[in-house]
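To the wet lab folks,

You asked to see what we're planning to order before we commit. Fair enough. Below is the target structure as tokens, and below that is the sequence we designed to fit it. If anything looks off to you, flag it before the synthesis order goes out.
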């Protein structure tokens, strides 16, 4: 699973929010599908640019990720590399496109999980939010806060009489 980091968590949440608010969604379009919407958020490329890059290769996100070669110089491979640099893995991208990560799905109640469709906007939003929640839970134990200032004696102001 992805390397939990605040930037990725926020990108997942922003993607879910934008989809909830009506951002273009079309599962069969490489720039506005599940991965395409997250790619827009992480890379700041437009859906048209992402789709154009993808059309230079063959297949959907799953297939292009399977054929991913970080040294090819092909635009889609550069895009995938950029997404991986944000903490994702190639498995994450394949799972996102089909909403199939078992850890994420296990967080969703069975009666809802059994009705999920990989190409349905509301299911993508649910998956993205649960994935962000999972990554946040993974990240929290590694955050160390310095609370030593709370143990220091506080100077109590006193009134001095002359």
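Sequence we intend to order:
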């Amino acid at each position: 699973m992805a390397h939990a980091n605040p930037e990725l968590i926020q990108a997942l949440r922003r993607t879910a929010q934008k989809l909830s608010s009506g951002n273009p969604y079309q599962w069969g379009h490489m720039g506005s599908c599940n991965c395409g919407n997250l790619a827009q958020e992480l890379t700041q490329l437009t859906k048209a640019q992402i789709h154009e890059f993808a059309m230079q290769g063959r297949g959907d996100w799953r297939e292009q990720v399977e054929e991913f070669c970080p040294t090819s110089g092909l635009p889609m491979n550069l895009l995938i590399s950029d997404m991986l640099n944000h903490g994702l893995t190639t498995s994450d991208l394949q799972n996102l496109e089909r909403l199939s990560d078992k850890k994420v799905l296990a967080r969703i109640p069975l009666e809802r999980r059994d009705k999920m469709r990989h190409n349905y906007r509301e299911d993508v939003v649910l998956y993205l939010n649960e994935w962000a929640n999972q990554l946040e839970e993974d990240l929290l134990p590694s955050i160390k806060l310095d609370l030593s200032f709370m143990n220091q004696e506080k100077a109590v102001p006193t009134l001095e009489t002359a």
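Structural context that might help your review: The chain has one domain: 6-141. Residues 6-141 form one domain.

Thanks,
Computational group
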